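step: validate -> pass
step: tokenize input -> pass
step: predict -> running
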Amino acid sequence: MDAGNLARLNDARRARRAVALITDLARGSDTIALEGDDVAAALRPAVEAAFRSGKSGLVELEGRSYFVNVHLPPAHIVIIGAVHISQVLAQMASLVGFDVRIIDPRTAFATPERFAGVDLTADWPVDVLQQRPLDAYTALVAVTHDPKIDDLPIVEALRAGCFYVGALGSRKTHAARLERLRNGGMGDADLARIHAPIGLAIGAASPAEIAVAILAEIVQSLRSRDVTSPKGDVP
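step: predict -> pass
step: emit ->
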């Protein structure tokens, strides 16, 4: 691999940017493409598919062979609210391969006994997210039903371009939420990205079923996300 391309690859991975090393197997030459970069038209569908799936592979095009080696940042799920849904969602999401952390300032809910082995912070999201900010490879799940806790991280997630932003609540509750956020300066295009009521519409009733619906919607959003737009700068 070219030393310059190796440096770009490592820089992208440190910056939590999706990056692909595209090697022309006949010529032995390679190029680097970040998610959202413009690539050769013939290669574009294969590269975009690799960014969505996270799977590397051989591509045969016009009699030539390329290997697309893709590196995706580990996807995070940040759950706002240490509630019953969160207990199940954290376990299932870890099995699927997501890094999970839970934030809730209510110490009666955010206890190690209820969330053994989970990255749990009993503090206000405004403080936690300053130290550990959200990014494009993060899913934000807000489930406290308390605007004082949920609203700020939802705004932060929209501004950070998180691939998924979901909020618990009925349509009436969500309408009130939208009004608050709109009054706070958020635009309609950003607000339209919020998944609410949260989760796929599978008729979920119990906390465990709601967690299944949320996780399925997160996976769907990750694998169908827009990979044609740049996700930020690489230092």
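step: describe -> The beta strands are 19-24, 29-34, 57-61, 64-71, 76-80, 99-103, 119-121, 138-142, 164-167, 194-195.
step: cleanup -> pass
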